[in-house]
Amino acid sequence: MSILRLKMSDETADLIRSLHPDIKRKIKAALQTVLSDPLSGKALKDELEGLQSFKVGKFRVIYKTTKDKGVIEVVTIGPRKTIYEETFRLLKRGKL
Q1: 3-state DSSP: the chain helix, strand, coil percent, rounded to 5?
Q2: Coil, helix or strand for 4?
Q3: Domain residue ranges in the chain
Q4: For the chain, which terminal residue's Cβ has fewer other Cβ atoms within 10 angstroms, N or C?
């Protein structure tokens, strides 16, 4: 297995820092799980194809894997209720 590294925007890192400590701890554990097994998330479909979602309680971690570069990029993190719409908006604006 190749060594993977985690990459995220400053905005996503700031979001994690601003979360409640319990949620922050769970998200950090989820990120470790994704690093050790990038396929542990659910593959997204349609407009979000190429991205994966990892469930953390009511939150979702949306990420993509670039195997040839050994990078897992965390696209965004947020509540299940709004995260997919937010991710789609980021995609439409060309920010992914």
Answers
A1: 50, 30, 20
A2: coil
A3: 5-92
A4: N
At the fourth CATH level, the homologous superfamily of domain 5-92 is RelE-like (3.30.2310.20)
Length in residues, the chain: 96
Amino acid type, 59:
F
Measured between alpha carbons, how far is 62 from 76 in angstroms, rounded to an integer? 5
Q: What does pTM read for this prediction?
A: 0.89
Residues 10-45 pLDDT 10s: 999 999 999 999 999 999 999 999 999 999 999 999
